Amino acid sequence: MYGFDGIIGNEHIKNHFKKAIEKNRISHAYIIDGEKGMGKMMMAKAFAMTLLCENEDDGKRPCLKCRSCIQAMSDNSPDIIYLNPDKPSVMSIEYVRENLINDIMIRPYSYKYKIYIVNNADMMNSSAQNAILKTIEEPPGYGIIMLLTSNMGRMLTTVRSRCIKLSMEPLDREKIKEYLMNNEHLVSYQADVAAAFAAGNLGRAKKLSTSEDFANMLQEIITLLKYIKDMPAYEVVAAVKRAEEYKFQYEDYLDILILWFRDVLLYKACQDANQILFKDEISIIDKYARDVSYNGVEEILNAIYKAKIRLKANVNFDIAIEMLYLTIRENLI
Ligand SMILES: [Zn+2]
């Protein structure tokens, strides 16, 4: 799906763009901020396509049929230019100079505007950011620059203050669930888990619900939780060793544990299987609800949050996870 109609949620941004087009008050520099997977690129593309669509009927833009729309849909529009970091995690001044600052001085090839979509713009180092200042302040009339960031705080204040800033908002869990059931053909229970997990991020939900890696990780964690009570410490250590392959996805790994223990807490309090996420594992959740005290669940959740902070600070994955599982085991009566 292309155009604004294909985007779920974030009405405030769609309305902003639609109104700007309608009133012909288009800014020349935008920042669209939001974490990876939130749909920044789709939004920027929808705006660019609408601006360049050759259909005269305002209500039907982008029309998805004209030459401009067809080129844009296959990323072949000569007047929509995509920029990406040219080095790992860095967009250099040389690259930005060549592909934006100098390039924007050349008139559009076919259409009314020339639109630059800068992906991961917050990876521009400060010299690159300083270099684009003048361009975003006084671009040629046809030039539009869209900076996509996942951490707007990394942009210089001077850059930020010259742009219209739009932030992508997380979507409702229900909306994500509905999308996954209709488009990815997940059953209700799977869609629940993926939606809860994605915390409002549709891209993440889609990725998780189709990822074999994620399904494996989920299964391994559940198996470990199932048997940990009766495992001697050395077996816990061995199991953690196997978990090492997930060290680059440690946030996902820990989020699964958080959701699990939230279920335990919920089930302890209300005994209602319909309320919990891991419905397929109700017998283990029930056992945990009986085996762990309220204080114990709190202690475990705190330990998970602590592990998250430690891992963010680059503490060894094995050590952090091992300590975590030992804390879980200690709290099982
Ligand atoms: Zn069109």
Give the names of the bound compounds: zinc ion
Class per helix and strand makeup = alpha/beta
* Residue runs with pLDDT of under 50 for 5 or more positions: none
- The number of distinct structural domains comes to 2
Outline the biggest β-sheet: 5 strands, parallel
Rg, Å, rounded = 24 Å
Distance between the termini: 52 Å
Percent helix range: 40-55%
Q: Tell me the number of strands.
A: 5
Instruction: Please state roughly what percent of the residues sit in beta strands, choosing from under 5%, 5-15%, 15-25%, 25-35%, 35-45% or over 45%.
Output: 5-15%
Overall 3D form: elongated
Supply the CATH architecture of the largest domain: 3-Layer(aba) Sandwich
Mean pLDDT, all residues = 92
CATH class designation of the largest domain: Alpha Beta
Give the helix tally.
Answer: 15
Features of this protein?
single chain; 333 residues; alpha/beta; Rossmann fold; Zinc Finger, Delta Prime, domain 3; 15 helices; 5 strands; elongated; binds zinc ion
What do you see in this structure?
The structure is a single chain. The chain is α/β, with parallel strands linked by helices and 333 residues long. The chain has 2 domains: 164 residues, P-loop containing nucleotide triphosphate hydrolases (Rossmann fold), CATH 3.40.50.300; 120 residues, Zinc Finger, Delta Prime, domain 3, CATH 1.20.272.10. It has a 5-stranded parallel beta sheet with strand order 2-3-4-1-5, sandwiched between helices. Helix 1 packs parallel to helix 2, helix 4 runs parallel beside helix 5 and helix 8 packs across helix 9.
